[in-house]
């Protein structure tokens, strides 16, 4: 069910929004509804992992104290000597 909503916005914002909506062939109401839907939608908690990514999981085993930033820094230092 659609419901009417009254908003108070600066005139310049409204004019730019109307122009944007016209250029994209969408109603201003639909544009605002889409925006509000996108920022309020529930994000999926479970992201599906593809079989390829799952097969690669656990391929590399590193020590718990491995410092990748330090290792990368050493690599760059050697590379650009």
Walk me through the structure.
With 81 residues, the chain is mostly helical. It is 54% helix and 0% strand. The relative contact order is 0.05. It has a domain at 9-41. The protein has helices spanning 11-23, 28-40, 51-56, 68-79. The mean pLDDT is 88. The radius of gyration is 25 Å and the shape is elongated. It has 4 helices and no strands.
Largest sheet: none
Intertermini distance: 67 Å
Approximate strand percentage: under 5%
Radius of gyration: 25 Å
How would you state the average pLDDT, rounded? 88
Number of strands: 0
**What global shape is seen?**
elongated
How large is the count of helical segments? 4
Structural class: mainly alpha
Query: What are the low-pLDDT stretches, counting only 5+ consecutive residues below 50?
Result: none
Order of helices and strands: HHHH
Helix content: 40-55%
In short:
This protein is an all-alpha fold. It is 54% helix and 0% strand. The protein has a domain of 33 residues.
Give the topology.
Blueprint: H1 11-23, H2 28-40, H3 51-56, H4 68-79
Keywords for this structure?
single chain; 0% strand; 81 residues; elongated
């Amino acid at each position: 069910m659609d419901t009417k909503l009254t908003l108070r916005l600066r005139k310049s914002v409204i004019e730019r929004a109307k122009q944007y909506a016209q250029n994209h062939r969408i109603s201003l109401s639909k544009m605002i509804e889409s925006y509000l839907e996108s920022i309020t939608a529930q994000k999926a908690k479970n992201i599906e992992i593809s079989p390829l990514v799952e097969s690669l999981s656990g391929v590399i085993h590193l020590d718990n104290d491995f410092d990748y930033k330090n290792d990368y820094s050493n690599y760059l230092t050697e590379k650009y000597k």
